[in-house]
Amino acid sequence: MEVVQMWECRISNGQTIIPIFYDISPSDVKHQAGHFETSFRQHEKDGVSSNTIIKWKEVLRQIGGLSGYHLDNVYGGHESQLVKGVLRRVRQLLKKDDQVVTDKLVGIDLHVREMMRKLGVVYNDGRAIEVCGQDVRVVGICGMPGVGKTTLAKVVFNKMHLLFDECSFLPGINSKGITFSQEMLIADLQKEKPAPLRSSDEGTKEIASLFSRMKVLIVLDDLHEVEQAKALAEKLSWFGPGSRIIVTTSMRNVLDGFDNRPTKKYKVEPMRYHHALQLFRKHAFQGDALQDVSEYDYLSTDIVKATGGLPLAIVVAASYLCNNKDDIRIWRNTLEFLKDHQANEVEAAFRVGYDSLDVPTRKIFLDIACFFIGKHERILSYMWEACGYYPARGIKCLREMHFLEIGENNEFRMHDLLRDFGRKLVERKDLHERCRIWNHSDAVSVLKDSKDTRNVEGIGLAVEEGCIVCFTCEEFHKMSNLRYLRLDRANIQGNTENLLPNLRWLEWSACRLISDLANMHLKKLVILDLSWSPVTEDSQVWRQIMEKVDELKVLNLQGCVQLPASLNFRAPINLEILILEDCTQLSQIGPFISDLKNLSSLNLRKCIGVRQLPQDLCCMKSLRELLIDGTGIYSICFSEGSLENLEILSACDCQYLQDISTIGRLRSLSSLALDGADIDGLPYTVELLQKLRRLSLRNCWKLGKLPTSIGKLELLEVMDLSYTGIMKMPWSVKDLKNLKTLKMAHTPLRKFPEDMVNLKNLEEIDFSSCRNLGVKFAVIFQDYPL
Q1: What residue spans of 262-387 are helical by DSSP H?
Q2: Which one of 113, 348, 468, 679 has the fewest CB atoms closer than 10 angstroms to its CB?
Q3: Is residue 562 domain-resident?
Q4: DSSP state, 269?
Q5: Phi-psi region of 105 (alpha: psi -120 to 50; beta: other; left: phi over 0)
Q6: Which positions ≥6 away from 63 have C-beta within 8 Å?
Q7: Which regions of the chain are under pLDDT 70?
Q8: Is 172 part of any domain?
Q9: pTM of this prediction?
Q10: Count of beta carbons in the 10 Å neighbourhood of residue 80
Q11: Separation between Cα atoms, residue 52 and residue 64, nearest integer Å
């Protein structure tokens, strides 16, 4: 009768029944055999009604078919193991191990599916079905602070922890300490109260010995150091077959602390605008109707843009406004506040990472935030090396923390909120005590004031075109520690002798009087940018300047249209980057170029008068980058052994370029771009470019086919053949084993080798507007996992 009542509760209220078959067979219960059969006969003799007996039998039949626990068969009669199994099941059903997650999530499904794929978990209709394979796997969730890494880990954990023997979610490891985290991990997996450990070494030994036969799911949240990873899960053999470890971190290098194996990574990016707006509305409005919908919508849009798609910033702002839905003035003030400030929670998240940086890396971070977003990584490194800031180390650290990104053209990128965070750190000091000043009006105020400004390391003065602004030498003499100066369109009056002795980078675009440079102290200068200035090679002043800058590494003369047709000035012998882009009068480069033994990059882009490459280039062993896009070059001819270290050759939009017959002699090329060239094919010797990773022939209309030797470029990863005349690909493309991206949009392609499906590294294929490709092509790629 009790079992009948349980079953009725299950039917009417959805309650859960867990049968425990203790000294009885589930089959006997289901079919009423053995003692059950004997008991029912006795009930019949005792006069129990047939309807009641039928009801009892039916319920027992249903109970016997449920998934339960059989002491004899499953646990071999060990009651303690049975108790542990039942306890585990009850905890799972009651969701005792579930992490608390808001019900206002937006756009999480795509992230969850990708995480399940990397974890090797079968995932359908929002449910984790099965863990594939017996390997122990680590997957790291990385991204900048506040982007939602922990939230994603919680959602994934809740969906899949039922598939494991035991599970543990260790929050905030970085703030709790290693030993405490070890104690909690051991307690979670053993389902016991935490026991104190004497040291982290003891904890490591405990973990290594206890769980090697247990299939576990572990989340290590907010790891910051490799030592934390090693103390908790250094060896994957510490855990049983099929175990999974999820790590959330803002430091990518901590993912290298697991068994010296490559760790799968999933990077969480800031939210796209439509998802960010949806998240904001869920938290700010919560379904309430508003009176002035139009203005609230307008403000919502601008507030979301001000947060930069960072979930933490969105939720903080929206939650505050939720309590002030009826006061439009607060919404307006909040928008203005967010344009100049950050919520405390957001700043705190950034501050943890910033405080962990060493002093040189902090300086690099602040330099980028204040001045150098969009600037080329290599150019900036020269200044930081000269200042002793160890740029290779610092940039790597900032990238691993997701404080910094490097774009496709090696330019620095930084999230707007991180940029603002860095600038606010500088602005907290009084204007005259700040180390960096990027605002023009602030810079003018500091220069015009008589106060000491030795703290200033960088200053930006951007004068609008058409304005005439003059500064005196006395104003700059106070800035003895200045290492970066931007002086667009401004003049300096007075005696410039020994001015700015520690200057490393002078950015003086559209400088009106080159003579202002003649007497300046330029001995430590490593970067000189005089783009769009009246520079002429025959100027005595220019020769004086060049004699001073012995340490110069980068010379930018972009747009210096007064440079004569034949350029042959004495250049610093240590120069490594020479930029002559947009020097439209230039047609020849004299033999001085061969004296630049250290030159690694030569930029001649849009020098339309240049029709042939200097012969002296051939012997330049340090040259690694040659940019001749938009020039009048008609032939790229090199002798055997020329430019033996050249890695990048960009000759896009060279509409007269026809002869590339000797391109195969550039054996070190990794990137070749000939977009828009007047070529009708590639030489067969292209197979000699064994280091080539990127090949772009976009807009080469005359190009009708590729040589079969193209298949020998085993390292090729990207090939862009869009807007060419290629109708058929050679069979050898099947051998491009490392190809990741193939673009052939707007080509007359008719047929494609079916063996192409064997290229397992393919990630992107673009055949848009290839109207001659038939249905068969679609069938070939229908199951391809792009």
Answers
A1: 273-284, 293-307, 311-322, 328-340, 344-355, 359-367, 377-386
A2: 468
A3: no
A4: P
A5: beta
A6: 3, 7, 17, 19, 29, 30
A7: 73-76, 287-293, 465-466, 468, 537-539, 753, 774-786
A8: yes
A9: 0.80
A10: 8
A11: 18
